[in-house]
Design a protein that fits this description.
six-stranded antiparallel β-sheet; 10% helix; Jelly Rolls; 12 strands; globular; mainly beta
Length: 157
Amino acid sequence: MVKRILTAIVIVSLLLVAGCSGAGGSSDSASYEILKKVELASKWRMCQVRLEIPSGAELPLLLKLADGDKVDGYFNLEAGAKLEFSISGNSQLYKSAVQEAASGKTISDRFSFTASQAQGNMYVLTFRNGDKKEGASVFLEVISPISAPIFVPLESK
């Protein structure tokens, strides 16, 4: 049952993420826009995305990876004051400290990890806007194998 639900979410999300031309899927809580998707050396894919995260909300991105797949990326907070970021598989791999923008400082982080069988094949990159007053705009770049799709889960109400 869980496999069927996950498969349905993956298929619907793939339909939302597949287009590269304009605005991506959105929900009441957060939205994304694919800015650029490029194939690198016929083995890798670089995807640049702008995330819009309302105050107090979060946006998870799912990566389906095989054992040994490598992922590299970075993000910049373009607008907003507080941002939390975490990466998890079967358990949490990385969690940034709550970062607050001081005047003139940029909030950004770089990440790199290798998928392992022990962590499973689904990894979640979660961006959480900790500011209760102001929305956040985040620029994200992810480099992953072409065989590793990126999904944005749908929310049901």
